[in-house]
Predict the 3D structure of the following.
Amino acid sequence: MHKSNHKMVNAHDCEECASERTATLERPYHFLESGLPNVYLTGIRYFVCTECNQTTVEIPAIESLMQVIARTVVEREAKLSGAEIRFLRKRLGKKAVEFAGIVGVSPEQLSRWENESNPPEKATDKLIRLYYAVQSGDPALKTKLAGLSQWLQDIPTLNSVPKICASLNKNQEWKALAATAGVR
C-alpha cells in the first residue's frame, strides 16, 4: 500500500483531524506523485485534514498502477511529452546519460526533450516507446511485441537486393508479386 502526504510539517496530528473521502469520476484524485501532470485516480480512499488541508492517500498495488500508466503512455497516439519521456526513462531505472546514449542523442538533447524545450522527432518518439516496451517486462506490451518480433525474425537477410515486381490488374490496382532472385 502506497501512502503519500502532500504537506510535511504540522503542529497537530492530522490523522485525528482527517476526513475520509473516496475518489470518484466526478472528484478524482490528482495523482501528481506519478511524475505526470495528467494522471487522475478513482476508486481509492484518501484523507484530508480539516485543520491544514493535508492530503494522505492510500494506493493499493502501486507497481501495477505505474505499469498501467506507462502502458497507456506508450500505446496512445499523441506525441510523448517531456514529462512522459522522463517517466518512461525513470520506470526503466535509467540515468539520463545512459538513456540518451541508448536513443542516440546527447544528454543535453534529452534534457531539452524532458523540459519541453524541443520535442523529439517522430522516429525517436517511436524508438523510445519501442525501447520501453521491449525493456519494461510488461506482459501486455510483450504480447504486442511478439508479432513484431516474429516478423523481424522472418525477414531474410540476403546478400543481394531482390527484385520488386508489381503487377497491374484489370481494375487498375497494383499488387506486389513474390520477390525474385536479386541483383548483385
About this structure: The chain has two domains: 2-60, 63-154.
